[in-house]
Structure formats: C-alpha cells, structure tokens
Design brief:
Layout: H1 3-10, H2 21-24, E1 29-31, E2 51-53, H3 54-62, E3 79-81, E4 84-87, H4 104-107, H5 114-117, H6 126-150, E5 153-156, E6 162-164, E7 188-190, H7 193-196, E8 201-203, E9 224-226, H8 227-234, H9 244-247, H10 256-259
Helix pairs in contact: 6-8
C-alpha cells in the first residue's frame, strides 16, 4: 500500500495502539560522565560513554552510588575565572565500571517491557497504587527541581538532547529540521525541569468509558494534564490542586451545535 495514500485517507486521525510506560513518562537520556569537569565528549568518542536516564545521571552526580556508573567525588572546590576552569584537581584515569551485587538494579532503570515484568494488581489495590504513583511523581519532580538548583544541566535549544554537566558535549547529534546548517551541533542553554523530567500532556477525559472526545470547535473546551496525572486520576487518586485548573474540571463541555454560539 502506498504510505502517502494511506496517510491521506486517515484525514489527520491518529492510529492508536496500546501505550507503554515510555508514553506516560517520556524517557530523556544523557551521557554518563565519570568527571563532569573532565574531558569533554567529542563526536568521535561518543560511543565510549553510556547513555542513561538524565534524572539518574543527575542523582549520580549529586551523590548516589551505582557501581556500574562510578563518579568522581571531589573534596576540594574547582577554581574558575568566569567560565574558564583554572584548577580542576587534575585529570585522572576513569576506573572500570563495577559489578553490582544486585544485577537487577540496572533492569529497574529500563522501562522497556516493564508492564510485562510485573503481574497486574488486584482491583482493590489500584486506588492505593495510583495515589502512591501520584505522590512519587510529585516527589521526583520536586527533587529534580532542587538538584537542578545545585547542579548544572544543559539542554539543546533546537532538539530534546540534555546533558548533565557544566557545559554541553560536542557530539553532533542535533537533527532538528531547518537547522542542518549547524552540522549537527547542539545549541546549549540552561535546562528547565520540564526538559529533564518532561510531562507528556494529554486531553482530560471526564468519563473514560464514555464516547471519544470530539474535535473541531469542542477542542478548546477540553482540559489537559500530564499523562501520569490523568492515569492516576482515572485510577482513583487524589490529584494536587495545581492540576485542576489545567484540566478544566469546572467547565461544562457543550454540544457541537451549542459550541457555535459561544463567543
């Protein structure tokens, strides 16, 4: 079948499939560095560095010990004049990654096929799990915000690449459309929390078992929320007040004919 003809027949309608954890929590990866102030990653050496979740890399640099991903711990401050490093304590050889006593620790970081690794919970436990998930989501977001106040994180202004460190890497991986003249170089700037721990916004559905949402003129009446919040709300969790205005819980969605009469 001609793919272009098939796309035209869909008339911009989505082709829905079963979602995964990565559709709810968007995975943002970054290079792991033994020494963030050490040698800068070059395009030719990019395969010598592991890619791990950016939140995990941020936690490692903040003090979390994972044997597979060692990190240099400094006892003396780095001396800088402006943006130039005067004394970084010397360059040392990176140690070989260790072997964890619990091999499953790295598997827990992998979200691929996560739903298949755990049996479905009984229906009576779903509201409790939803509330724990909602609380954990807020805890992680608050923790990332606090860590980013202390540790520098850079984000590309053209694509979704994130780098945890005082300056970005030199790997030419930016393929943003209409910016090919940059030869793949990233445009680094200070990252925001939503770039490191991005919320995937979805339409709020008042009745999950009801009819599908209608597009057109009614679209402006529907609220949105991060996918995690929407899933937890539908599962029976109490959501924070800050999300309720975004979800427009106090707005009555009119019928299609009534929407044309709304100013």
């Amino acid at each position: 079948m001609n793919l272009r003809a098939f796309t035209a027949e869909r008339l911009n309608f989505h082709s829905w499939i079963k979602g995964s954890v990565n559709d709810v929590l968007v995975p943002i990866e970054a290079y792991h560095l033994y020494d963030p102030f050490g040698r800068r990653i070059k395009h030719e050496t990019r395969f010598q560095y592991d890619r791990i979740p950016a939140v995990v890399e941020l936690c490692i640099q903040a003090g979390v010990e994972i044997p597979e991903y060692p990190s240099r711990r400094r006892t003396k401050p780095i001396r800088m004049i402006g943006r130039k490093v005067i004394d970084r304590g010397g360059l040392i050889e990176e140690p070989q990654p260790g072997i964890s006593a619990n091999p499953s620790s790295l598997i827990d970081l992998d979200t691929h096929g996560a739903c298949g690794r755990f049996p479905p919970p009984p229906p009576s436990d779903i509201p409790k799990i939803a509330q724990e998930t909602m609380d954990a989501y807020e805890t992680v977001k608050l923790g990332v915000t606090k860590l980013m106040d202390r540790y520098t994180v850079k984000a590309c202004g053209y694509c979704s690449e994130v780098h945890v460190g005082p300056w970005g890497h030199n790997a030419k991986l930016c393929g943003e459309f209409k910016h090919q003249w940059r030869d793949g170089k990233h445009g680094w700037q200070d990252a925001t929390v939503d770039e490191v721990f991005p919320p995937n916004y979805v339409w709020h559905v008042e009745d999950p078992k009801g009819p599908p949402l209608k597009g057109g003129a009614l679209k402006k009446f529907y609220g949105k929320a991060p996918a995690v919040v929407e899933v937890c709300l539908q599962a029976g969790a109490q959501i924070p007040e800050k999300y309720k205005p975004m979800m427009r819980l106090d707005i009555v969605v009119p019928e299609s004919e009534e929407a044309q009469l709304v100013a």
